[in-house]
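Subject: for your reference before the review

Hello V.,

The reviewers asked for a structural picture of the protein, and I figured it would be easier to keep everything in one thread rather than splitting it across files. Below is the amino acid sequence we used in the manuscript, unchanged from the supplementary table.
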Amino acid sequence: MAVIIDGRAAALKLQDRLKARLAALRERGIVPSLAVILVGENPASLSYVGAKEKALAEAGMGSRDFRLPEAATQGELLSLIAELNADPLIHGILVQLPLPPHISEDSVIAAIDPAKDVDGFHPVSMGNLVLGRPGFLPCTPHGVLVLLRDYGIPLAGAHAVILGRSNIVGRPLANLLARREQNATVTLCHTGTRDLASITRQADILIAAVGKPGLVTADMIKEGAAVIDVGVNRVPDPRAKKGYRLRGDVDFEGLVQKTSFISPVPGGVGPMTIAMLLQNVAQAAEGVFHG
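And here is what came back from the structure prediction:
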């Protein structure tokens, strides 16, 4: 039976190690602070923003909340970002995605000062990642990598198969795992991949990040593979208090007997994403990365 990867415990260890750095910043009169911008009233986005702000407060870090109506213009959002770029008391800027369709996500991300790009989505951050240079790493891919390392899952020479090619998870994670220090062989699968199961069955490490509940079933993996489930899908459930339950991209119950390691949903990658965000905000306050 698989070892269940405990993302909450791993995140707490990271936050505990962060305490000394935050204390050193406080001695310099610096409180790492994040500006969180939310456009509209997307329920999932509201939940994510709330969780991030709670974690910041618990760590003794600052946050400023900016809520814009769904009808806010792209110009209004860009003007707010420009103000925050110029504010020396704001060390990081996070624009919660997705944005309303009338606003260009690419334009908004590019408007953030790379030195405050704690999400790691700016073209400068992405370029640094691809070239192996220091810079802010996207929080979810970095969290996945830390989990793999913490649990001693071998990376060098391993065949890592990633499902999903988004700029938020799939592509940056592929680059991270292929770096010399990880030395994994990476296959990136997507909607155009033919005979998906024949590829996933080759994986020593399978990472699912497609947003399709229960997509990966036991017949799609080989015995002893390590599985990381990045998917967070709201599945209707009238018995649940909120009317839904969270389910990942893999069939957890079907895979748990066949895998060597597996991350649950919730409680797996999610807490690590927030922990890596805290680390990025601290790095921004330290002035480690300047774009």
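For the response letter, the relevant points are probably these. Residues 7-27 form the longest helix (21 residues). The chain has ten helices and eleven strands.

Happy to draft the paragraph if you're swamped.

O.
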